[in-house]
Design a protein that fits this description.
By secondary structure, this protein is of the alpha+beta class. Helices cover about 25% and strands about 15% of the residues. β6 and β7 form a beta hairpin. α1 packs antiparallel against α3 and α5 packs antiparallel against α9. The relative contact order is 0.10.
Length: about 475
């Protein structure tokens, strides 16, 4: 079915060079009767992805040319010989067209109480997949250590090998929310609790993500599979069961900073300590908001062979990025695309492990106050109960020369759940006991608690107890 000329996306798509066949490749079944979902009276299924005409129990999944299933298997892959061959065709213009066509049709703003067909389908799919995963017997995998390698596809060296990668050890029993927040983000060099993310099981396309995340880029979820299981209910072993298994880590749903994570080895139970350790790596992390892997690769090429002006503009953008400022990389005299410091990376991971988990509902956002008062009283300060407002960068530090403001994040009061945290000293998720003083940090052994007390926690514990007494 060609785009309706009355839909605003029609003109936009045409201006961008899309043909009718480009636009309708993923949505060909308008007017047909769906197998599971219910349409509103004024909806004939135009612009709806073909998968939603099928049944969530039996729909046919699209498998990538590499054998991996992404985004629940919803999207077909672009054929060989075409531009972007081998990539998922999520039909983003079709998705946006449908949003415009039916923004006032379905709940919560529409004339009918029906949820969108997409949401009806996802509700059943998520319930079924959650039920099945809860029945999986993981055996001793939750107590065994995994040697994992994470790398970013399409960011390559001249010999074709990944330019940005890390190798590390982590327990298979670590909860996925802790894995992303306290391991993957600092390991790679991303800002914690800034952008949304997804973790995908390549075996069947099941997706996991942050519960109730308010990160700004979550608005693009429909372009990345429409939904996910809450990651705090599952662990690494649910996605990776043997050597050679792989999963996807997508950071920033708008820019699509894609990572592949592969199992290189699973240690025997008797050799597994549960501690997190960074083993090796290479390549500096892309800047935040870098528009994805391919665009970062182009920026690196610009730094190598661009004009002096192009290089200067690229460096200005990179060194003003939040993650480069947080890690101090913007202070380096020269940019090195292959920069990696093992001790620095291990320290970043251990620092994250020594803190409370991030609160996805209070994800960082950049605030540009319209008055001086805005620096001290933010609109989100009292937005939700049992949260506190935290300015995470100096209010005098501009993000770049053209803007000023600060990043704001909401922190949830209380402590981590014992099932969704890790030892503050080593990162093990096993046999945790809470600090009797502050009742905030967890430790897997007396040795870990003693070592962390001497190196870090003594002053922190006293400060936390004082704060608790002052608010009692």
């Amino acid at each position: 079915m060609p785009f309706s000329s009355s839909n605003p996306m029609f003109g936009i798509a045409k201006m961008m060079g899309y043909t009718d066949s480009d636009l309708t490749r993923t949505a060909t079944r308008a007017g047909q009767r769906p197998a599971f979902v219910t349409f509103a009276p004024n909806d004939d299924g135009a612009y709806l992805h073909d998968v939603f005409f099928e049944h969530p129990d039996t729909y046919k999944k699209h498998i990538g040319p590499d054998g991996h299933i992404r985004s629940w298997g919803f999207y077909p892959y672009i054929e060989e010989g075409a531009k972007c061959a081998g990539q998922e065709d999520n039909g983003h213009m079709v998705i946006r067209a449908r949003e415009m066509e039916h923004q006032m049709t379905y709940a919560p703003f529409g004339k009918t109480s029906l949820p969108r067909p997409e949401d009806q389908f996802m509700k059943a799919l998520l319930a079924n997949r959650k039920r099945d995963l809860k029945l999986v017997n993981l055996g001793d995998l939750t107590r065994r250590d995994y040697v994992l390698k994470i790398y970013m596809p399409k960011i390559l060296k001249e010999n074709g090998e990944p330019r940005v990668w890390r190798r590390f050890i982590v327990s298979g029993g670590m909860a996925l929310d802790v894995f992303q927040d306290k391991i993957l983000a600092p390991l790679m060099g991303w800002v914690r609790n800034f952008h949304g993310h997804l973790l995908t099981d390549y075996r069947d396309g099941t997706q996991f993500g942050p519960k109730k995340s308010k990160a700004i880029d979550m608005m693009h979820l429909d372009l990345s599979g429409y939904g996910y299981l809450n990651e705090d209910e599952f662990c690494i072993a649910h996605l990776l069961a043997k050597t050679g298994d792989a999963m996807k880590y997508q950071y920033d749903l708008g820019d699509h900073n894609d990572h592949d994570i592969q199992v290189e080895h699973i240690l025997p139970l008797e050799s597994s300590a549960g501690a997190v350790k960074v083993l090796a790596g290479s390549g500096i992390c892309p800047m935040e908001n870098s528009e994805g892997n391919a665009q970062w690769a182009k920026k690196l090429e610009t730094l190598k062979s661009g004009s002096p002006k192009e290089k200067q503009e690229a460096m200005k953008a990179i060194y003003s990025s939040p993650n480069y400022r947080d890690r101090g990389w913007n202070l380096r005299r020269s940019f090195d695309a292959d920069y990696f410091d093992l001790a620095e990376t291990q320290k970043a991971v251990m620092t994250a492990l020594g803190t409370k988990g991030s609160f996805p509902e209070g994800a960082k956002m950049f605030v540009m106050p319209t008055s001086l008062e805005g620096f001290f009283v933010g609109p989100r300060a009292h937005a939700r109960g049992k949260t506190s407002r935290k300015v995470t960068t100096e209010i005098t530090a501009p993000v770049n020369a053209e803007s000023w403001g600060y990043f704001e994040e909401l922190k949830k009061e209380g402590r981590d759940k014992i099932t969704n945290t890790a030892c503050a000293a080593c990162g093990s998720p096993h046999d945790l006991k809470i600090c009797a003083g502050c009742r905030q940090r967890f430790y897997c052994s007396a040795a870990c608690q003693k070592g962390h007390w001497k190196s870090t926690h003594k002053q922190e514990c006293e400060d936390l107890q004082k704060r608790k007494r002052s608010t009692a």
